[in-house]
Amino acid sequence: MQNWKQANPNRKIPARDLTTSNLSSVTAEWIGAACNPEASRTTAQNEVLALSNRLIAEIPSANEYVSGVPMHNFAVPSVLKLWIDQIVRLGKTFSSSDGVPAGLRKNKKAAFFIASGGIYEVGRAMTSFDFVEPYPRTIFGFAGVTDTSFLAGGGVAALTCQNSTWMHKHC
């Protein structure tokens, strides 16, 4: 990272820690606001979409998205799903013409680093790719990001168990 920053002094790396972002679920009120044309939205509807608008504003200038994705109960973490729900919006990250969606984030790349407590490697009965990879590949592809790569690292629980008193007692 330091080498990249030195080679690209004028480039900015926006970062978002989803665990500290206080993301909220999409509600009927949110959907109603998002479906209402921007020029017709009420003040209350604009307030409902304010977080979504801020999150979407962070992503258009990026050429590549990099995400650390822990596998929770064989799925993506709920906070990642909440973030995706806030940024995948008609007219913002995808369009629709005659009912056919088209992603608006073309010529972008996405890299996902998947961490799992157990070891779910290629060649085993179950892999983290079986559970975690399909959702981000599909939803980012829906938004137009089709150049995706995935790297899995398993066995994190062993490291955690060695360094945590609570985990050591319960692993």
Features:
17% strand, two-stranded antiparallel sheet, 3-stranded parallel sheet, 5 strands, 171 residues, 39% helix
How would you explain this protein's 3D organization?
The structure is a single chain. The protein has 171 residues and is an alpha/beta fold. It is built from nine helices and five strands; from the N terminus they run H-H-H-H-E-H-E-E-E-H-H-E-H-H. The longest helix has 10 residues, at 78-87. The chain is globular, with a radius of gyration of 19 Å. It starts with a helix and ends with a helix.
Mean pLDDT: 83
Query: How would you name the CATH homologous superfamily of the domain at 63-170?
Result: Flavodoxin domain
Top-tier CATH class of the domain at 63-170: Alpha Beta
Gyration radius, to the nearest Å? 19 Å
Task: Name the CATH architecture of the domain at 63-170.
Answer: 3-Layer(aba) Sandwich
What percentage of amino acids are in beta strands?
15-25%
Distance from first to last alpha carbon = 34 Å
Largest sheet: spatial strand order: 1-4-5
Give a quick summary of the entry.
The protein is α/β, with parallel strands linked by helices.
What topology does this entry show?
Elements lengths: L1 H6 L20 H8 L7 H6 L1 H9 L5 E7 L7 H10 L6 E4 L2 E4 L5 E7 L12 H4 L2 H9 L4 E7 L2 H8 L1 H6 L1
